[in-house]
Amino acid sequence: MRMHRSFRRSVNGITIDIFPHLLFRGVSSPEGKWSLGGLMMQSDKKKPFWSYLEVHMMVVLMVVFMVNIFCQIFFRVLFKTPVFFAEELSRYAFLWMVFLGLSYATLHDKHIRVTLLVEKFPFTLQRITEILIHLLAIACFCWIGVTSISWLKFISGSVTNAMRIPRWILGLILPLSAVLVVIRSIQKIVACCRTIAAHRKEDEFE
Protein backbone atom coordinates (compact mmCIF):
# COMPACT_ATOMS: atom_id res chain seq x y z
CA MET A 1 0.00 0.00 0.00
CA ARG A 2 1.42 3.34 -1.05
CA MET A 3 1.63 6.00 1.65
CA HIS A 4 1.41 9.73 0.95
CA ARG A 5 2.75 12.46 3.19
CA SER A 6 0.40 15.24 4.24
CA PHE A 7 0.70 18.40 6.31
CA ARG A 8 -2.05 19.65 8.63
CA ARG A 9 -2.78 23.22 9.68
CA SER A 10 -5.75 24.55 11.66
CA VAL A 11 -6.77 28.16 11.02
CA ASN A 12 -9.70 29.66 12.95
CA GLY A 13 -11.92 26.60 12.94
CA ILE A 14 -10.84 25.32 9.52
CA THR A 15 -8.64 22.26 9.33
CA ILE A 16 -6.41 22.34 6.26
CA ASP A 17 -4.62 19.17 5.13
CA ILE A 18 -2.07 19.68 2.36
CA PHE A 19 -1.64 16.66 0.08
CA PRO A 20 1.11 17.28 -2.49
CA HIS A 21 0.10 14.19 -4.52
CA LEU A 22 -3.38 15.71 -5.04
CA LEU A 23 -2.06 18.93 -6.55
CA PHE A 24 -4.05 18.54 -9.76
CA ARG A 25 -7.02 16.58 -8.36
CA GLY A 26 -10.30 17.55 -6.78
CA VAL A 27 -11.67 15.34 -3.99
CA SER A 28 -14.83 15.53 -1.91
CA SER A 29 -16.37 13.36 0.80
CA PRO A 30 -19.67 13.07 2.71
CA GLU A 31 -18.01 14.38 5.89
CA GLY A 32 -17.95 17.91 4.50
CA LYS A 33 -14.32 17.81 3.38
CA TRP A 34 -13.22 19.08 0.02
CA SER A 35 -9.91 19.63 -1.65
CA LEU A 36 -8.56 21.89 -4.32
CA GLY A 37 -5.01 21.69 -5.53
CA GLY A 38 -4.00 19.33 -2.75
CA LEU A 39 -5.46 21.52 0.02
CA MET A 40 -7.97 19.43 1.98
CA MET A 41 -10.24 21.63 4.07
CA GLN A 42 -12.97 20.94 6.58
CA SER A 43 -14.98 23.81 7.99
CA ASP A 44 -16.36 23.98 11.48
CA LYS A 45 -20.01 22.99 10.91
CA LYS A 46 -21.11 25.10 13.89
CA LYS A 47 -20.35 28.24 11.89
CA PRO A 48 -21.87 29.12 8.49
CA PHE A 49 -19.87 29.19 5.29
CA TRP A 50 -20.15 32.98 5.30
CA SER A 51 -17.90 33.11 8.37
CA TYR A 52 -15.05 31.66 6.31
CA LEU A 53 -15.79 33.30 2.95
CA GLU A 54 -12.48 35.16 2.78
CA VAL A 55 -10.52 32.06 3.81
CA HIS A 56 -12.04 29.92 1.06
CA MET A 57 -11.46 32.62 -1.56
CA MET A 58 -7.86 33.18 -0.44
CA VAL A 59 -7.12 29.44 -0.53
CA VAL A 60 -8.39 29.24 -4.13
CA LEU A 61 -6.31 32.28 -5.07
CA MET A 62 -3.26 30.82 -3.34
CA VAL A 63 -3.62 27.61 -5.35
CA VAL A 64 -3.91 29.64 -8.57
CA PHE A 65 -0.85 31.64 -7.53
CA MET A 66 1.23 28.54 -6.73
CA VAL A 67 0.22 26.58 -9.84
CA ASN A 68 0.87 29.61 -12.02
CA ILE A 69 4.36 30.11 -10.60
CA PHE A 70 5.11 26.39 -10.95
CA CYS A 71 4.04 26.40 -14.61
CA GLN A 72 6.10 29.52 -15.29
CA ILE A 73 9.24 27.90 -13.86
CA PHE A 74 8.51 24.61 -15.62
CA PHE A 75 8.11 26.16 -19.07
CA ARG A 76 10.96 28.63 -18.63
CA VAL A 77 13.49 26.00 -17.49
CA LEU A 78 12.54 23.04 -19.67
CA PHE A 79 11.17 24.66 -22.81
CA LYS A 80 12.90 28.06 -22.60
CA THR A 81 9.47 29.59 -23.30
CA PRO A 82 7.95 31.59 -20.44
CA VAL A 83 4.19 31.81 -19.99
CA PHE A 84 3.43 35.31 -21.23
CA PHE A 85 0.61 36.02 -18.74
CA ALA A 86 2.16 34.40 -15.65
CA GLU A 87 3.54 37.58 -14.11
CA GLU A 88 0.29 39.46 -14.58
CA LEU A 89 -1.86 36.62 -13.23
CA SER A 90 0.37 36.26 -10.16
CA ARG A 91 0.23 39.99 -9.52
CA TYR A 92 -3.55 40.20 -9.59
CA ALA A 93 -4.00 36.97 -7.59
CA PHE A 94 -1.69 38.39 -4.93
CA LEU A 95 -3.55 41.73 -4.88
CA TRP A 96 -6.89 39.96 -4.44
CA MET A 97 -5.47 37.92 -1.56
CA VAL A 98 -4.18 41.09 0.13
CA PHE A 99 -7.50 42.94 -0.13
CA LEU A 100 -9.50 39.89 1.00
CA GLY A 101 -7.13 39.69 3.95
CA LEU A 102 -8.32 43.12 5.09
CA SER A 103 -11.78 41.88 6.07
CA TYR A 104 -10.38 38.59 7.40
CA ALA A 105 -8.00 40.49 9.68
CA THR A 106 -10.86 42.77 10.77
CA LEU A 107 -13.03 39.83 11.80
CA HIS A 108 -10.26 38.04 13.71
CA ASP A 109 -8.46 41.10 15.15
CA LYS A 110 -5.27 40.43 13.19
CA HIS A 111 -4.49 44.00 12.18
CA ILE A 112 -1.45 45.68 13.70
CA ARG A 113 -2.52 47.85 16.60
CA VAL A 114 -1.03 49.72 19.55
CA THR A 115 -2.84 48.65 22.72
CA LEU A 116 -0.49 49.97 25.40
CA LEU A 117 -2.92 52.70 26.48
CA VAL A 118 -6.20 50.89 25.75
CA GLU A 119 -5.22 47.90 27.88
CA LYS A 120 -5.13 50.20 30.93
CA PHE A 121 -8.77 51.22 30.43
CA PRO A 122 -11.65 49.54 32.31
CA PHE A 123 -13.23 46.62 30.47
CA THR A 124 -16.29 48.53 29.26
CA LEU A 125 -14.21 51.48 28.06
CA GLN A 126 -11.97 49.08 26.13
CA ARG A 127 -15.00 47.72 24.26
CA ILE A 128 -16.31 51.25 23.62
CA THR A 129 -12.92 52.24 22.20
CA GLU A 130 -13.04 49.19 19.94
CA ILE A 131 -16.52 50.19 18.75
CA LEU A 132 -15.27 53.70 17.91
CA ILE A 133 -12.37 52.21 15.95
CA HIS A 134 -14.72 50.01 13.93
CA LEU A 135 -17.03 52.98 13.28
CA LEU A 136 -14.04 54.90 11.94
CA ALA A 137 -13.13 51.89 9.76
CA ILE A 138 -16.69 51.77 8.41
CA ALA A 139 -16.52 55.46 7.47
CA CYS A 140 -13.13 55.05 5.76
CA PHE A 141 -14.10 51.98 3.77
CA CYS A 142 -17.45 53.44 2.76
CA TRP A 143 -15.47 56.30 1.24
CA ILE A 144 -13.06 53.83 -0.39
CA GLY A 145 -15.98 51.82 -1.80
CA VAL A 146 -17.68 54.87 -3.32
CA THR A 147 -14.40 56.24 -4.70
CA SER A 148 -13.44 52.86 -6.18
CA ILE A 149 -16.70 52.69 -8.13
CA SER A 150 -15.84 56.02 -9.77
CA TRP A 151 -12.37 54.66 -10.54
CA LEU A 152 -13.85 51.50 -12.09
CA LYS A 153 -15.97 53.65 -14.38
CA PHE A 154 -12.83 55.57 -15.39
CA ILE A 155 -10.93 52.39 -16.40
CA SER A 156 -13.94 50.55 -17.86
CA GLY A 157 -12.65 50.90 -21.42
CA SER A 158 -9.16 49.45 -20.85
CA VAL A 159 -7.85 45.87 -20.70
CA THR A 160 -4.77 44.26 -19.16
CA ASN A 161 -1.65 44.00 -21.29
CA ALA A 162 -1.17 40.22 -21.26
CA MET A 163 -4.45 38.49 -20.40
CA ARG A 164 -6.60 41.09 -22.19
CA ILE A 165 -9.12 41.07 -19.34
CA PRO A 166 -11.13 44.26 -18.73
CA ARG A 167 -9.43 46.09 -15.89
CA TRP A 168 -12.73 46.90 -14.18
CA ILE A 169 -13.30 43.17 -13.57
CA LEU A 170 -9.98 42.81 -11.76
CA GLY A 171 -10.59 46.10 -9.97
CA LEU A 172 -13.83 44.80 -8.45
CA ILE A 173 -11.78 43.66 -5.49
CA LEU A 174 -11.67 47.28 -4.26
CA PRO A 175 -15.43 47.77 -3.68
CA LEU A 176 -15.77 44.08 -2.72
CA SER A 177 -13.14 44.32 0.01
CA ALA A 178 -14.65 47.60 1.21
CA VAL A 179 -18.08 45.99 1.55
CA LEU A 180 -16.61 42.98 3.35
CA VAL A 181 -14.68 45.18 5.80
CA VAL A 182 -17.83 47.17 6.56
CA ILE A 183 -19.79 43.95 7.16
CA ARG A 184 -17.06 42.48 9.38
CA SER A 185 -16.78 45.77 11.30
CA ILE A 186 -20.53 45.73 11.96
CA GLN A 187 -20.19 42.13 13.18
CA LYS A 188 -17.45 43.22 15.58
CA ILE A 189 -19.55 46.16 16.84
CA VAL A 190 -22.47 43.81 17.55
CA ALA A 191 -20.11 41.41 19.33
CA CYS A 192 -18.72 44.25 21.46
CA CYS A 193 -22.22 45.41 22.41
CA ARG A 194 -23.15 41.88 23.44
CA THR A 195 -19.95 41.57 25.46
CA ILE A 196 -20.68 44.85 27.28
CA ALA A 197 -24.25 43.73 28.03
CA ALA A 198 -23.04 40.34 29.31
CA HIS A 199 -20.39 42.03 31.46
CA ARG A 200 -22.99 44.33 33.03
CA LYS A 201 -25.24 41.38 33.82
CA GLU A 202 -22.32 39.65 35.54
CA ASP A 203 -21.66 42.79 37.61
CA GLU A 204 -25.32 43.02 38.59
CA PHE A 205 -25.36 39.34 39.54
CA GLU A 206 -22.30 39.76 41.73
Would you summarize the structure shown here?
The protein has 206 residues and is α+β, with helices and mostly antiparallel strands.
Structural features, described:
This protein has 206 residues and is an alpha+beta fold. The chain has helices at residues 53-78, 86-107, 123-154, 167-170, 173-205, and strands at residues 7-11, 14-18, 33-36, 39-42. The protein has five helices and four strands. α3 runs antiparallel to α5. It is elongated, with a radius of gyration of 22 Å. The model is unreliable at 14-43 (pLDDT under 50).
Key terms:
206 residues, four-stranded antiparallel sheet, single chain, 4 strands, 9% strand, alpha+beta
Order of strands across the biggest sheet? 1-2-4-3
Shape: elongated
Please compute the radius of gyration using only Cα atoms. 22 Å
Note the main sheet: 4 strands, antiparallel
Q: Write down the overall mean pLDDT.
A: 81
Q: Helicity level, as a percent range?
A: 55-70%
Residue share in β-strands: 5-15%
Count of extended strands: 4
Distance between the termini: 62 Å
Low-pLDDT runs: 14-43
**Quaternary organisation:** single chain
Number of helices: 5
Structural class, please? alpha+beta
Topology order in helix (H) and strand (E) letters? EEEEHHHHH
